[in-house]
Amino acid sequence: DAEITQSPRHKITETGRQVTLACHQTWNHNNMFWYRQDLGHGLRLIHYSYGVQDTNKGEVSDGYSVSRSNTEDLPLTLESAASSQTSVYFCASSESGTLGTDTQYFGPGTRLTVL
Amino acid sequence: QKEVEQDPGPLSVPEGAIVSLNCTYSNSAFQYFMWYRQYSRKGPELLMYTYSSGNKEDGRFTAQVDKSSKYISLFIRDSQPSDSATYLCAMKGTGRRALTFGSGTRLQVQP
Question: A41 in contact with B at a CB cutoff of 8 Å?
């Protein structure tokens, strides 16, 4: 069955370190998204990609970067981790369908703690 | 002010009750409206999807959209303990593929 996976599931790091969170989908979807989820804020969009070599900033992109070299993967990099980036990170993918439904399928999440 | 407002709850109801979950929004460009369900420590999963105004029913779940009031609702009939989760509304405009989410309402159905 097609799926979307994230790794690691849990990560503890120190302030100032570079961290990369992996996202891999086997749906063959063109669209991929990274969100962070914090209490009281719901899911907020960090970066998204509509295809290989395409990346776009979301509403909370400062301090994060992504690259899309193939259809299946969209890794999220925290250039210099800060305590404010302690959060749960979700990756999602979608295929543009008719009527613009674009149903998004979510991964299980990565819980990141920055000390 | 957030584009999408949602009461965070928690909302606690007895088993068998009718549950009403709501979101309001400010962006009149939103055309597609979704409800996601998220169990603890899991990723969200799509529950209901509605285009523009109107109602949509799927089993015990009914989604309503009132674009004139910028208000959407999710009704759960005969609620079950297995419905205990956080419910997130999400929406987007035509041509945009990223979603704007509400903050989520935590629902607890007591047996």
Answer: yes
